[in-house]
Amino acid sequence: MRVLTFITSFAGLGSASLEAQISEEYVRLSRRLDKLIVVTERGKIEENIEIYKTHPIHIPKIYGLTKILLFSLAPLRRRKQIDCVYVRTFSPPELMALWTSRKLAGLPTVLLIAGTWLFEPKTIKNIIFRWILRRAVVASDRVILYSPHILKDVKRYASNLNENKIRYIHNAVDINRFKPREEPSDKNLLYVGRVNEKKGVGDLIHALSSLAQRFPSAKLLIIGSDPTGGAYIKQVKELAYKLGVDKNIIFVGSVPNREMPSYYQKASVFLFASHGGEGIPRSILEAMACGVPVVATEIAGIPEAVKEGVTGFLVSPRNPQSIAEKTATILGNQDLRAELGRNARQMIEKEFSWEKMISRIVAVFKEVTTSKTVAGKKETTR
């Protein structure tokens, strides 16, 4: 089977971007296919992957339009050489490319919607994004979601999604690269992700302020970049200083993906306080694969992985006190921490490994390429 997909930069594990994780997924996916063609601006050939490079014009306002055009043309030019189009990174160029693939070339299409954060807040730009998403879900023969828990959020932006086309496949992690070490460092808390208000980083600072009263040596490591260019981190540092926990926080910045296992392995508890828009965050799965219990907000698909009292604890969004209390419960009981960590690792091995995810995605590709009367095909003629 020959599949065409997209990514802005086909990056190796030396990159700190989300694209490094997706690129790793593509490498594994390619091993199960006859050929995987990756449409990208930057990248090199690896294993069974063919790189199809595009060269959009890097001028503000023009860049996005030229990228949409070039991404959309790629499957049309290769339509005789591919069996299926797979969109895994769902910004407008990829979504428009999926639409043109189905409408103009009649190619089978699969869309994976990993979360909904891209479509907020309600700006003019994001309203256009939502409009494009609605066109794409109609043009998709199958839509993959990580969990039924995120269906409600997706339908807020794409109410025209035909649920018969949905296939649920969990996000996944490399269980051989992310694995436990024998003794995690004491009182080390960890957050990995974008550093902004929507991710609840401010809530983590408030939680640490309560937690430090009982565990004054507790340290919170924050790994990730600030989409505002540093303005939000400055705001968070001021908050930490005001609350008297600035010495308990280490802003690590971006870390190459290949170095991430060592950070998880040193953590006692992984914290994730996002306010919404998630699927099943890979950072949570990576932490669990390393045997780290998780305290996270009960949103989107997170409850699929974080089971209350089994692999960690769930809290309501914007509730720093609950985060502090649940974290204190884990830190104060070494046996409980070890049990939650073991359970977390076992769950990842059972339900969230690459092997399971990739085989299920390939099965969806086969489903759309072997069946011409797919659930969504009638929709595409509307």
Structural description of this entry:
The chain is α/β, with parallel strands linked by helices. The protein has 2 domains: 2-172 and 354-381, Rossmann fold (3-Layer(aba) Sandwich), CATH 3.40.50; 188-351, Glycogen Phosphorylase B (Rossmann fold, 3-Layer(aba) Sandwich). It contains 12 helices and 13 strands. It has helices at 18-30, 62-77, 92-105, 124-139, 151-157, 201-214, 231-243, 260-265, 282-289, 320-331, 334-351, 354-370; strands spanning 2-6, 35-40, 49-53, 84-87, 109-113, 142-145, 166-168, 188-192, 219-223, 249-253, 269-272, 294-297, 312-315. It has a 7-stranded parallel beta sheet with strand order 3-2-1-4-5-6-7, with helices on both faces. A 6-stranded parallel beta sheet has the order 10-9-8-11-12-13, with helices on both faces. Helix 2 (62-77) runs parallel beside helix 3, helix 6 runs parallel beside helix 7 (231-243) and helix 6 (201-214) crosses helix 10. The protein starts with a strand and ends in a 12-residue tail after the last helix.
Pick out its properties.
382 residues; alpha/beta; Rossmann fold; 2 domains; seven-stranded parallel sheet; six-stranded parallel sheet; 12 helices; 13 strands
What do we call the CATH topology of the largest domain?
Rossmann fold
- N-to-C CA distance: 29 Å
The tally of structural domains comes to: 2
CATH architecture of the largest domain: 3-Layer(aba) Sandwich
Q: For the largest beta sheet, what order do the strands appear in spatially?
A: 3-2-1-4-5-6-7
Instruction: Give the averaged pLDDT, no decimals.
Output: 92
Classify the beta-strand content into a percent band: 15-25%
